[in-house]
């Protein structure tokens, strides 16, 4: 039976740069992937649009369109909470929406931001909200539509300046086979062209590390492409590898 | 093709209490498992034998016999370095022996002690030696018989008082299907009967945690038996789960 | 002069599983013990009652009755803030109530949750509220009934999955002499029968660790029962031991 | 029955600046206190004597005389291993000596250096040796005169630049009643007069912290004198305070 | 061109005890220094005034007058947000005020509290608000008067009990040449006379550490006066020293 | 007066990939730079030469020649201890050599490896030796030629897989103006051509981070080239920036 991947982010660009490989891997295997965007990144991650004189509504519309197109390239669904950014704030309404989303999707794997980011506090807020809503969605006493969820593993994707965010990669995900899809999704974000190369290089560097840590069994080649993740909960497995 | 599991410990009892589940899982799948014991635990872990007045040679012989029997229950080979314990000391000779063992076995997975143990410094020493010999065995410039090895993942098994050893479980291994085999191996260590229940209870507690962290896919039941491990290097994988 | 123990928890079950030994020890010495429960655990820790179709009010009444009975077994008073759970939220009203409680009880020792718990965020919230209210209760400028308090030491009791909560035991409390009282209090919580054994085993395991760390002076036997705690502030003492 | 305090240091000055209060408290209560000095601090802590042109033997004699006098002021015995300093090195002979000392003294409390000190690596080495010899002295299989010891608690005393050594005080020991004795012992070290005030001030500052953390029961005044310690093992106790 | 120093604190006393040296150094070089005080410390740091029976308004007026005088001694401007203390709370209004202040001052260096303080939670709150407002002030999409700011480095000043606040000094600032100015500013705070000596001694101790770490180039003497700081972001430089 | 930079490494390649920018910056300002190579990297970092069938002596000669050439490109002197690698071992002889080197060079800044590297234990060993020899070289009681040294700051350069080595960059050094020199030095290491791009990309990425953290004063452009370092001791300064 197919898995369900739920990706919870603060802003629309996040899933593209940091998790597009994991999303494309999932959908290429026939899994369902749903992205929950808490805001449109309208204030904090749209500097060039503001400088061009666009209105708030125009900016939100443009960020939404872009994100929908990138999600579509990756074969994923996308939802927007429009909770506002810079600052993104934890409210009962947003939490409610995420609980409902968890229960609708019944995720088998969850991706979200790392716990801290001194360069963008919305990321840490999104992490906290995503983690808290996950636990609330497990409780029969928390009312709402749908069934309670199990306890899906949570992976934090890589922040922009990982060492300053306390991010230590403990999972390197080989995304070589869907690399072209990630590249295509990045190219949808035309205003941030300078990041295409940045994240292409990051994919190669994490890939080289994956190769160096891959052991005799996987034996990945040195031109592997990878994304780095950090687990929130211990891995549960039936075989060490 | 079958995997090769290499287990490097300071004393003979260690692989039974802490890693017998992983060993039995491997051999039950047809993998090769080799245990490298750096000492016979003759001074540090044989208190009752010393109190009974046995000689050093008698104690070493008895510990060897016991360990061989336990290894045999688990379907594993066992080698002894007789490097002395309490204290176990890093010497060029012991390192040499371990390099050769790595190259002979060509492990796909390595198990050893955690990096620190203030209750038994031999454990930390064994960890350091095992890690260093692994890197040396990778280098063509380090001479000796056999081929250089790849970069097998290393898992630290659980120390007796984990919180004081900086041990945080990041892998919970479901060993339910080989639990009887682990129980049988523990019972070989007749002099430490009080530990049978201790480690049976630990298997149940780690199993309950495995169940609680297992997610909708694995969906482990609450009577799972598990062993806890901590990775030294990041996991490399082709799918998040 | 008798001591005053103040125990601040998120939910009614917490003081039974995690701190009943400390409470019973205190009351058995003639100290006053007061438990402040911030909620009835009505949403997050009453899954079976919800599944049985009870109303919110019924569940709160039942959790209250149970907690009052368990407190009574331990010789302790209990107060409920009814601040709601899942999520428990920090509000000026709840903080006000706790400041007043601190000033009424004038505690010499405070117990509460650990600072983090990714499996139950109410626990972390309760920790934060308890710590903040303690500092506010020390200030003459924060108005309200009663006298300002001193600076009582704070001990965090053990979370359910300690390693994932950053909990490292730094105090092991010998509760052997009141073990029967703790067992009796646990048995009041009839719906969670599966936890009786879990916490009985935990008491034995922490007891064994207490024995191993107890030194020549205390010289605790290996069948000791203990509870683990973590200090928030440094210990102040007139003798090292 | 009286306690036995064992203080293991790298150099002769260490016990005076860092632990004289704990030693004087012990002996003032009728306990036995034994100081084991691994070296005479002849190379690393005798800069002014070298600059005056003294020979190695003269320096060792002078440091010994001074340390014996300071120990005598504190009512403590002192032993010297003469193992050499700068660098102090772990050797089987030194370890042997310390095992014998542990077994002779049968300490109920052990004091030694913190685990790290980037300004003086002898301190870290002495910590490691003291901790390892303690475990070896517990084992019947490690031969030598005397009886095996129990598991005495170990406290690390405060290094000169604590924050750079990873030292976080978790015990503040009230030494007010023996402060004059500590002052007198410090004054024996005439060549390091500049440190008298430094450690007098430190005693007052740690004392103020002790007062601020002392809770309603102890209720220490703000002119308390204290020494800071960090535990290696968890505290075992019959009452929280 | 002159630098702009922005100091963001919870209460009026903070900038005097913890950062007066940095402020006086800046103004003595001709830089602009602006202090933003989030509250008057009217509830949490005015115990003696409350005990004397003053009203809230009187206390706020007195704390303001004192702070203005101390700022004037240091050559700095000061602003008050009057957001209330004990507890200081993050509100959109306070954040708005700080964003505007950042944009007005265009700081080249920012000073604020450390990230944690279990003895005074207002300090941690002020740290969080200051850090978050700094990032918001960088975004063109966050509206308001003035220009967006760059990314000024942030330094946390030293809390009262540093080790319990996770504060590790990574910058020691030589303030010898403005020490008299700091002393004079401290003396403005007449009600806290007991702290004059405390912080004088701290200045000497941090100064001694500065001397010991100063290397052959700076070569600071042992009677240096210093303040300790901890960076939030990595240092960027054109020369290692 | 000119500074003296001392770079202490395990193997000949280390100073090129990790610190060539700092070295070239120093020499371009007229400072002296001396590289102390503890081994020729003959066993651990010469895999391709071994595979080509060269003898040990040939390999050492070739590594020496290459390193001398690269040092010359950077305007630096280079010394070799020939202490052997894989494993590099701490011996009194090697320590002696480094003490003498410290005293000869009288460094104002020291560069060496990070404290840990699970992929190459020689790096951690070299770090430990370099740090210990530095302290020994400060003591008049440690005999040998030359004058004792002061306390130069120590910077750890970036390991190959920084996150697995506990390496958090706390200094970003702008090396843009000497980038060509670093590139030229890398090209001397012809056998490791695959690393040229790797470290070119790293220089750009660290440069981008330098730009993002550089503040309004430095205001570095986004095409900056940088190297990352981690301090062992606190920075001592006369101005915050």
UniProtKB/TrEMBL annotation, chains A, B, C, D, E, F:
Keywords per UniProt: Zinc
Pfam family for this entry, one: PIG-L
Keyword set includes Protease: no
Ranges in coiled-coil conformation: none
Matches recorded under PANTHER family: BLR3841 PROTEIN, N-ACETYLGLUCOSAMINYL-PHOSPHATIDYLINOSITOL DE-N-ACETYLASE-RELATED
The protein, known as: PIG-L family deacetylase
């Amino acid at each position: 039976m197919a898995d369900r991947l739920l990706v919870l982010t603060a802003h629309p660009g996040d899933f593209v740069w940091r998790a597009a490989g994991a999303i494309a891997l999932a959908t290429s295997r026939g899994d369902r992937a749903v992205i929950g965007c808490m805001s449109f990144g309208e204030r904090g991650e749209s500097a060039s649009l503001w400088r061009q004189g666009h209105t708030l509504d125009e900016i939100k519309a443009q960020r939404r369109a872009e994100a929908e197109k990138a999600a579509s390239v990756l074969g994923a669904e996308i939802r927007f909470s429009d909770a506002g950014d810079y600052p993104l704030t934890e409210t009962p309404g947003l939490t409610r929406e995420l609980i409902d989303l968890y229960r609708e999707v019944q995720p088998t794997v969850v991706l979200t931001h790392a716990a801290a980011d001194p360069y963008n506090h919305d990321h840490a807020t999104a992490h906290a909200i995503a983690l808290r809503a996950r636990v609330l969605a497990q409780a029969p006493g928390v009312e709402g539509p749908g069934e309670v969820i199990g306890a899906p593993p949570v992976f934090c994707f890589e922040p922009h300046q990982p060492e300053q965010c306390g991010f230590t990669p403990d999972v390197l995900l080989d995304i070589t086979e869907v690399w072209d899809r990630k590249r295509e999704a990045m190219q949808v974000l035309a205003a941030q062209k300078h990041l295409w190369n940045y994240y292409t290089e990051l994919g190669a560097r994490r890939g080289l590390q994956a190769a160096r840590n891959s052991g005799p069994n996987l034996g990945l080649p040195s031109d592997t492409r990878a994304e780095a993740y950090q687990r929130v909960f211990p891995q549960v497995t039936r075989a060490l590898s």
